[in-house]
Design brief:
The N terminus is likely disordered. By secondary structure, the chain is mainly beta.
């Protein structure tokens, strides 16, 4: 009897152990990855500004980024990214958080992202600074997508805080997606800032992919940028309103400036070739001063800059030696008042050389025509050494 009982207990224990082995393990946190990049730069310019200053001849650390990313419970992707270069003087250049978000990715056709991340506006905005290919993002993307925005918002690298849905829909017979959509609701204040006027920015985009490598898209953006502080009252012609003593009449509170923007985009990236072009139009005034430290209270509007701006670029990156050496050219034009007498146009040619998959040496010559300067034509040379890890 004892032998039978012992045999039964042993069998039960063995069965239990096998059942534990067969039970699938659920990983709460997985695929954690640490990555980053360093972009070092030398730049020369013979520009002569209207105030008499001229020539730029300097080495610079253009950007240092470090990121952690991974998955939660399989369906959630998360990322935290820090920008480490710069000083602590202002919101734009100090060490700071640039990305902090999570995205539910269970379905390709419906994904939900929340946190701080890239605004869903234009093709170029979300691109990696190195693989974007040139010495900087195009002027229209920089000024009208929240990098150094014309509204007066602090430098936000094209990002804001909010919630976004996106997805790929309609597959062809080969299983390739033909349509992508994305729409988000954001504070409208840039990185690391709460909403000021309790109004939200709504930004969306839709593009089609009729053939492999080709994207044709359109984007829209409506919202506001706001500050809390004081400003001089003006009349309908933007002239200062004076009191009986001849002093400016001053108001205080929250002041909101509307942002209405749209963009049309096209890109072909296949067989090691890249062609991309985008037009952006913006309507809405900007503040006179740029928000830097987070303590600015100057809410005066820069009426002289007008309430419209636009820009256009077209570029090509062509393989000379596949996966290694590329020639490149870009036409890059921005009009801060949507008028030709205010335009700044960059004519750029250069080359990128990849050492393996992680190191790139890039050289670029630029002929600049800036009609806001007394001497509108000048030259620039840019050399970069970029490393990804």
């Amino acid at each position: 009897m004892k032998k039978l009982l012992s045999l039964a207990l042993a069998t039960l224990a063995t069965t239990g152990a096998l059942a534990q082995q067969d039970k699938p393990k659920i990983s709460v946190v997985s695929d954690i990855k640490f990555s980053g990049y360093v972009m070092s730069q030398y730049q020369y310019s013979d520009k002569e500004a209207n105030d008499g200053t001229k020539d730029i001849n300097t080495f610079n650390i253009r950007m240092v980024r470090m990121a952690l990313e991974g998955r939660l419970m399989q369906d959630f992707y998360w990322k935290v990214q820090l920008q480490a270069n710069g000083n602590t003087s202002d919101l734009g250049s100090s060490p700071r958080m640039v990305d902090a978000f999570a995205e539910w990715q269970k379905f390709d056709a419906f994904k939900v992202k929340a946190g701080q991340f890239k605004r869903p506006f234009t093709f170029e905005n979300p691109m990696h600074p190195i693989t974007q290919g040139f010495m900087g993002y195009s002027q229209n993307v920089t000024k009208l997508s929240g990098f150094s925005d014309r509204s007066g918002e602090h430098a936000s690298n094209g990002r804001d805080i909010g919630v976004q849905i996106q997805g790929d829909i309609i597959k062809n017979q080969a299983g390739r997606n033909l349509v992508h959509y994305q729409v988000g609701v954001f504070n409208g204040q840039g990185t690391g800032q709460k909403d000021v006027d309790q109004r939200k920015d709504v930004i969306g985009g839709l593009w089609v992919m009729p053939v492999k490598g080709l994207r044709l898209g359109a984007f829209g953006w409506t919202g506001s940028y706001a500050r809390k502080g004081t400003w001089n009252v003006t009349d309908a012609n933007h002239k200062p309103v004076l009191d009986e003593q001849g002093n400016n009449v001053v108001e205080s509170g929250v002041r909101s400036l509307k942002k209405n923007r749209y963009a049309f985009s096209a890109e072909y990236a296949a067989n090691d070739w890249t062609f991309r072009s985008e037009y952006i139009h913006s309507q809405g005034y900007g503040f006179k001063t740029t928000y830097k430290t987070g303590k600015e209270t100057d809410c005066n509007i820069n009426y002289a800059a007008g309430d419209k701006a636009d820009g256009f670029y077209a570029l090509m990156i062509a393989p000379v030696i596949s996966k290694k050496l590329y020639a490149k050219a870009r036409y890059d034009m921005y009009r801060p008042k949507a008028e030709w007498n205010t335009s700044k146009t960059n004519y750029e040619i250069g080359a990128n050389y990849w050492i393996g998959k992680s190191i790139m040496v890039a050289a670029e010559y630029v002929r600049v025509n800036d009609r806001s300067l007394n001497k509108s034509n000048y030259n620039m040379f840019d050399l970069e050494f970029d490393v990804k890890f």
